[in-house]
């Protein structure tokens, strides 16, 4: 769906990129309900922002949004954010809410909130400023102008007072730290208007004093995943400069003609370029500063394709604390201190997945016959440099350290992959363990994280073997058969077999985990574990084409629906003592609905499972978003707030707060003194008499 740019007049190049220093009523009445009538309650349990959980969830929301709806036959041009539940409730929920919630949350983190270190201090940005002999802010502003020019976006329309990050913190308080500027910026003919905050991000900062200034791979990796998926979407085609219409990329040189520019549109193209610039700096910082040498017990750099774990483990540790330097306007890392040196499986797969996605964008190996010409055009030297030729040839012996996007990402990707294999895969058991202390593996296998490691490895195998990833990760293609790809497939198969042999219960559910040497967990199965197993088994089916894995995923899905679904309240219980939905659970449930609709539903002769009828899955999907994500009242639900892109427009002369009369308030009216960013929070599920 095409997104149009807002008209913005920048006061100056440097100011347009830098931050400035520095609960009301909602106006619209909710649906009238009897105070005595029993209803579902979804109160907020924790509104602190968990970067890893949110960005993971919103990645699944993105994939379960427009791409899913379009794949099921929706014409995206029929969607209108202001036409609630049209053409159908599912179409609107997927194509508008799931998709746009996902996009806006990413921008909140990487362009508005300040939840991390400023892009001015990114390694690539610093080097560019030194080479150009310019002040850092001016060099970055000029870079943004260069990126705008590459997609035909007017320089004067760049958003003002952005806070672009190059790496993000583990968490923070999503309440705004100052009054959100909802004054009129530009009026429209229908009485709606563009508020200032949508074009000038100065009033959207979070409180830096309440940020968890820790670098955790699952957190900055989760953001990386969001960035890579959206960048791939935005830069995956060309557009005509005069009409701004998307055109198919046929050759890497199409943009050299007078009327064709990079990106699917000028506005989306610019966002894709900014995201890619952030990713590039993030990866350079990770590669050169955030790997941990277990022997020397110190941070160091990655060796990439030359890395051999048998010579000493060098991996991404769980927690690195940041002592900030720089300024309040543009903070930098003055000191990095390792606070938790363990390698956690959750951290590693949430770095492997996005690095594999970005590898698919930047891959310039001559033997890859599945390259997207639009991506090749982005990385042809302008606006992003080509890959070092030694790093794309077939000779690994001549590989060298280089700073182009492909090379820095490949270094991180290969080292993370080899560490997952060496540190987390138990060869004897054939399963992934949750942690490694730098000296020895643990013995715990967590079903959820093992399942998602399989999905990350599936994307890795596709990328390293030169097959499409991103929205096209389900498409068939001939791969290159690399040694890394073969090993990834081997680990996927063995983990899938482990689930079948060691985790499956007689009732069709899977155990929450397994302790090597002891056996499977005996406590009540959780919804989260079932979701992880379904994702993992489906990944195994897609990667290997072994129907036994699809059959197993279907059995677990049926058992999950039978065991956890509440027919009265139309929600899934979680299997915990208290029904609590975290962003991790919400993201996994969204992802499982998607793979069920795409891969597990009754589409073969003899398949009659009621739970896997397409209509049943769609109804569960809609109920989940309606009851849990949006919530039953303005004060409840996971989605804290929303803005224009999901229909909550600003109307001049009308009381603001919730103009579309749904259960998600506008950002400035979402609670606290100044409102809350449009992100996910943890909620509890309470039904009937349990609601007190």
Automatic annotation (TrEMBL):
Coiled coil: none
Domain of life: Bacteria
Organism ancestry: Bacteria, Bacillati, Bacillota, Bacilli, Bacillales
Name used for this protein in its record: Extracellular membrane-anchored protein
Keyword Signal carried by entry: yes
Gene Ontology biological process terms in this record: carbohydrate metabolic process
Signal peptide: 1-20
Species this protein is from: Geobacillus subterraneus
Keywords: Signal
